[in-house]
Write a structure and sequence with these properties.
The protein is an alpha/beta fold and 476 residues long. It contains 14 helices and 20 strands. It has 2 domains: 268 residues, Aldehyde Dehydrogenase, Chain A, domain 1 (3-Layer(aba) Sandwich), CATH 3.40.605.10; 187 residues, Aldehyde Dehydrogenase, Chain A, domain 2 (3-Layer(aba) Sandwich), CATH 3.40.309. The strands form 5 sheets. It has a 7-stranded mixed β-sheet, sandwiched between helices. A 6-stranded mixed β-sheet has the order 9-8-7-10-11-19, sandwiched between helices. The structure holds nicotinamide-adenine-dinucleotide (NAD).
Amino acid sequence: MKHTQLYIGGQWRDASDGGTFEVLNPADEQVLATVASGTVEDAKAALEAADGAFAEWRARTPRDRAEILRKAFELFTANLDEFAKLITLENGKASADAMAEAKYSAEFFRWYAEEAVRAEGQIGMAPASGARIVVHHKPAGIAVLVTPWNFPAAMGTRKIAPALAAGCPVVIKPASETPLTMLALMPILEEAGVPPGVVNVLPSRSSGAVVGAMLEDMRVRVVSFTGSTEVGRKLLHAAADNVIKPAMELGGNAPFIVFEDADLDAAADGLMLAKMRNIGEACTAANRIYVHEKVEEAFVSKYTDRMAALKMGNGLDDGIDVGPLVNAETRDKVAHFVDDAVAKGAKVRLGGQRPNVKGFFYPPTVLTAVPDDAECLKDEIFGPVAAIQTFNDEAEIIRRSNDTIYGLVAYLYTGDLKRGLRVSEALEFGMVGLNRGLVSDPAAPFGGVKQSGLGREGGKEGMLEFMEAQYISTNW
Ligand code: NAD
């Protein structure tokens, strides 16, 4: 399954200057593959290929595109084991997490196969003139897709499937840490019937130059990015010159609130998901954990027991729950957050020590009494560290939860549904997990408010990100 070249116009090719970069296995720090590093010239070739494919792809009937997407779902599903293995090899996450990602990734093809045929519009009457208002949606044009390393498959399929359903060709630049999974998807799309040029993959170690050059091209009409808020801001600036439609899935700083009337076992299980799915390397990861002071000890003890039962090691080995983090920088950042919190007075209930082994490992860690000035409460931890604080008042915890530049997802556990809905509504987040530790679902609009992003992926909304409404004014 290991493709290492650029994929442009349905052809595998080396970079125009012959450049390459290395992809490491985070479990042993060994080189896993040497991958072609796309250049600005290659980016132009990819846009040419996409442009050449656009007219024919947009003219296909929705049913035709839907059946190709359905076939992609079936082929992906038939290859789940291989995708999961590749995800673990380049990202490090344990096999169970990798399999969950592979299944989630495939589902975007199924969902958008079902959505592709619902190209709905509307007909209305202008109140004053009586003219007819006819509204329909057209494919926006070429879409540039830029994805992060934490979900090497899902962050790609969550963009490719709706773009194809909408009738748009794409050029995707996967993260340099994890380009192999996206490359491995191409033979599947080919077999499913996606014509050459409709999907192009451009790994590159010069992300800024390559993506920047594409955003200078007037033919590009959508830039869909998932990654850090810092890079997202740069792409928004770059998109401004040609007024390219942006879809931004950026960072998060999710609060996880446990009220005194919550089912504590369910809350502890929910926090295992919200914190430890993907070893905490998720924009949706619970980052600030607030437990009502009346139930603090009971909850922390249940949660710490669950964290202590996890086994760390090479993600490919049997029985492993916690693989390595993706690279040394991420591991060092996590270790820094823990050291900073402890130096400021946090108590270590579990873990907290970086192991002296090969691979970018950090153990499951539980911190309590985390002080308000700890850096990990302001920034994404992106690792297996639970930072716990207490609260005693509903209004206070809503205010503290909202006190962040981010607004992606919040979680809360309570036995009182009325309170649950009241607090959900008061939380300034694009998504809320109410008595649930997982919100991601291809059928639901995923996305954030404030500096967590613009636009939505998944659901009905995800396809509209790749379409433009056209209104025709007429009489008959
Ligand atoms: P990143 O922003 O460093 O990189 C994301 C992508 O952008 C990569 O492909 C990278 O090569 C590329 N890139 C980097 N600099 C660029 C530039 N100047 N111009 C163009 N492209 C550039 O993010 P990351 O470290 O790969 O991923 C982690 C971040 O992603 C976290 O902040 C996380 O919260 C966020 N994330 C968000 C979501 C979401 O849906 N909201 C989902 C997953 C991850």
